[in-house]
Amino acid sequence: MARDICLRQLAGRPRTRVELARALTRRGISAEVATAVLDRYDEVGMIDDAAFARAWVSSRHAGRGLARRALATELRQRGVDGDVAKAALGELDDETEAETARALADRKLRATRGEPDAVFRRLVGMLARRGYSPGVAIRAAKEALAAQSAEAAEFAERIDTEALSDAGSDLDRESPLDT
User: 124 and 85 in contact (C-beta within 8 Å)?
Assistant: First the structure.
């Protein structure tokens, strides 16, 4: 029965060992049986948390535009070990993350109307909710605004990116996502 539960879980999408263990516990499978089945699945390669983490980071960054911090939270929620998660997240470099943030800001900007300061706040807020650091979010929003119109470019020129990034980084250090 435990094997069938695991196979059904794995048929939908790849799962971490912790996710499978939780499913087995919910179905009333004893810890000893669960451990034996999960160990066997580990041996034959049906469970691979490292491969899961790499695939998760790649797909969620490309598909949803999530930043490393948001991805780290999702991996932690799925029971991926911290070192395994760190290795998978290491494959996402700063430049790629900044490019993705800018593309998200550009896309959001096309559907956003209003005064440049309100639009700027919306863009930064959207990027922050996706896990981008204040510095990356502010720079991406400023660049997107600057490319939009003369009025928006004038507003963007007045934004002191470094000062805002420094103020935001103080808040960023206190983020519950990093705990």
Answer: no
| Claim to verify: residue 15 and residue 40 sit in the same structural domain | yes
- For residues 99 and 132, state if they share a domain: yes
> Domain range for residue 83?
48-92
* Cα–Cα distance for residue pair 104/98, rounded to 1 Å: 10
Q: Give the model confidence (pLDDT) of 101-124 as tens digits.
A: 999 999 999 888 888 888 899 999
pTM of the entire predicted model? 0.79
Rounded distance between C-alpha atoms, residue 96 and residue 2, angstroms: 41
Each residue of 90-105: pLDDT tens digit?
Answer: 989 999 999 999 999 9
Half-sphere exposure of 152 (CA within 13 A, CB side): 20
User: Is residue 169's pLDDT more than 70?
Assistant: no
Cβ atoms of residues 130 and 66 within 8 Å: yes
Q: Do 178 and 102 share a domain, yes or no?
A: yes
Last residue of a domain, one of 92, 115, 149: 92
102, 33: one domain: no
Radius of gyration over alpha carbons of the chain, in Å? 21
Amino acid (1-letter code) at residue 161: T
**Which residue do the tokens 């993350």 mark?**
97
Report which of 16, 133, 117, 155 is spatially closest to residue 68, judged by C-alpha positions: 133
